[in-house]
Design brief:
Largest sheet: 7 strands, mixed
Number of strands: 11
Shape: globular
Strand content: over 45%
Oligomer: single chain
């Protein structure tokens, strides 16, 4: 059974940073593309970033490019999202996504 457990969210001031983690199990993590997506209150699910199985290729939504960095540790079956220069519009529940399956999410709130 695929399991994805996100963590690392919280309340941060504008301009601050957070690192999200996603612990994966139930599949061969190192063989799959992984994604981060987010959902703000009242809005649709939004793709944030993608990383290839080896971690050498990444892609980002324009809204986060230059501020967020996706990475993975295949030895630990863990996906990361380093978020810098956070803005109020980054407020959302963040999910890691594997072939249509996502975890429970972690709340990120950017506010003074």
């Amino acid at each position: 059974e695929v399991q994805l457990v996100e963590s690392g969210g919280g309340l941060v001031q504008p301009g601050g940073s957070l690192v999200l983690s996603c612990a994966a199990s139930g599949f061969t993590f190192s063989s799959y593309v992984m994604n981060w997506v987010r959902q703000a209150p009242g809005k649709r699910l939004e793709w944030v970033s993608t990383i290839n199985p080896g971690g050498s290729t990444t892609d980002y939504a324009d809204s986060v490019k230059g501020r967020f960095t996706i990475s993975r540790d295949n030895a630990k079956n863990t996906l990361y999202l380093q978020m810098n220069s956070l803005m109020p519009e980054d407020t959302a529940v963040y999910y890691c996504l594997h072939r249509g399956t996502r975890g429970q999410g972690t709340q990120v709130t950017v506010s003074t």
